């Protein structure tokens, strides 16, 4: 069972269950044309994010790691009228492409892209007393995953959901001796999740068009 089959099954599920969406397709095409890396969430994972946001009834969403705004658009589509999504992106070129994609999707009124290193923009965000986020999607540089989780928790309330992408990376996560800062960052995240009594968490391995990876999910259960 290999990559070819994983991709075929992803296409089968996506063709059957994920409606074609011109704005999302345009976002991927524009990101590609601008030379952004093809590392957005897969369509079926985008729809999972959308469904989780709907399930939660999320009115305020935080994203760390925007790229071209593909996952942003999926999440923002789940917002009710008056809902708001703030997404944090380090690279001004990525942010510019994302803003255009978000505008094309008709979501500019409810999405704000903030440019800078997330560890710099998060304290500023917190100082603005944004009110708790119902859902946070962490998908930036993996070396800072544990710190991003701590910020997300601080900006959450009981019932908030925190999702972290790419916690498996071809299984590299089990290599405690790895000198890859991204692996160590994710291992610290898992330690923090394990030790944090305010959340109930799990992590799930996935295969698909984007290879072998996975995500972690934490529910804030106490203040
Ligand atoms: N969530 C996107 C993919 C994000 S890719 C999607 O699924 O569509 C990761 C993004 O994180 C890249 O755009 C990268 O520039 C950004 N990034 C990397 N380091 C960062 C940092 N320190 N702060 C904020 N964003 C960062
Ligand atoms: C990479 C980053 C991602 O967020 C992802 O989903 C896949 C790959 C990367 O940096 O290679
Ligand atoms: Mg990712």
Task: Give the gist of this structure.
With 223 residues, the chain is an alpha/beta fold. It has helices at 3-17, 22-33, 43-56, 70-76, 92-104, 118-127, 145-154, 181-195; strands spanning 60-64, 84-89, 111-115, 135-138, 161-165, 199-208, 211-220.
Architecture overview:
With 223 residues, the protein is α/β, with parallel strands linked by helices. It has one domain (3-220): Rossmann fold, CATH 3.40.50. The chain is 43% helix and 20% strand. The chain contains 8 helices and 7 strands. It has helices at 3-17, 22-33, 43-56, 70-76, 92-104, 118-127, 145-154, 181-195; strands spanning 60-64, 84-89, 111-115, 135-138, 161-165, 199-208, 211-220. It has a 7-stranded mixed β-sheet, with helices on both faces. It is globular, with a radius of gyration of 17 Å. The N and C termini lie far apart (44 Å). S-adenosyl-L-homocysteine binds next to helix 4 and strand 2.
